[in-house]
Amino acid sequence: MNALASGSLITALRLWLSCIVEWLLFLPVWIVLQKYLQSGDALLPWIYTLPLVSMTGALLRQKCNRKWKQLLAALILGAVAGVLAGAFSLKEIPLFAGAAICAYLGTTAAGRDNRIRFYVAGMAVYFAATIAFARIPLLQPSVAGLTWSGSLCLILALLDSNTSHLRYSSFSGAGSPLPAGLRRHNRLFVLLFIAVAAALAAGAGKALGMLIWHAAQAFFGWLGRLFSGSGETEPPEAPPPVMPEMPAAETQEPGLLSMLLDYAFYALGAAVLAVVLYYGLRWLYRNTGGLWRRFIDSLLSLLRREAIQNNTAYRDEEKSIFTWEKTVQGVRDYWRNRLAYPSRRDRWDGMNGGRERTRWLYRHWLNAKRAEGYLQRNYLTPQETMADIAEWNAGRKRQRKNEAASAAAASAELLHFYNQARYGEAELSESEVLRLKEKLKL
Fold this sequence. Notes:
Number of strands: 0
Shape: extended
Transmembrane segments: 12-31, 43-60, 72-89, 95-111, 118-136, 142-159, 188-213, 263-285
Structural class: mainly alpha
Strand content: under 5%
Radius of gyration: 30 Å
Keywords: Membrane, Transmembrane, Transmembrane helix
Protein name: DUF4129 domain-containing protein
């Protein structure tokens, strides 16, 4: 019991640390929103409520295991954060949206394994913020804090990507330790990069750049005086006079009755709009078919999707042997597929041999099942996926018995062909694969 409680506590602490890191990665965005939108008479600074709602969302991950529950919890937590921050005006609606986004990231933090995209986006935000904040008077006091937080995010991104690459290269699991020699050799280079990043953050890069710039100016100035024959230098131009700022106009706060009427009008308008939207979508769903009905079914399937905590996805034939021939061929195929039309990238006529056509059949058969409403579980093997689809087909109310028998037979034959294409050495007969394609109606 103590071991179980200790494991849950360690998991919660790791998720909280991940929430704080994600908050730090987009700190410039939160600073801009608070500086320009939050009023001065707030109960709590809005920027400090964001990690709180994110960590609260991480605690609710077990109860909010479906997409619609996660969205609902994010909206509620975002509203609570907005109230704590004193956001009661119409212009402060982005504060509610930002808090809701942080809460949603917290509820889904347990299902994210690869965070390299977050780090890349965060580094891009810091790069743009350091350029913009230095030129905006209202944001200039935050430049020093952004320098330190950006350096910390850079170190965390380097450590995370380095650890992930080491585990992938050494075929180590998430909980198994890395080899000692490999870890020691790699940490030496990581510490070197961190030292360089710390030196750049402390101003060494700016000092070095200014030194080079002044040296270049002195050198070219000396060359100019040498060829012109005069040793006198022109006096520097005086800076243009700064225009005095106009005093801000006085604003009068609206009365309490006016504020209550404004909120009542907004609430009534939102309620009427929600009712009209609901009945409009309901009428469209009942009286139209085809693409619109499939879109609504896909949206409902997305909202009902259950979050998978331990996602150990099945990987088909992963290879780690590097060759230049395969790399060049892969790059050529990638650009050929990118430049081709979407309808021509994955066609039956473009497949070579029975092996590729069998894989084509498996992919399109699985896509067809997903279009019918089947929720795919990536951690299942192909055989387990077949069994899961068979169980799903058996539970459908409007399925006919003869269709179930033919679908089961075709699925079993497809599984046999797929395993033979993956593990067998002999090439499959294209006539049998074509017959299976007609049977599956793909």
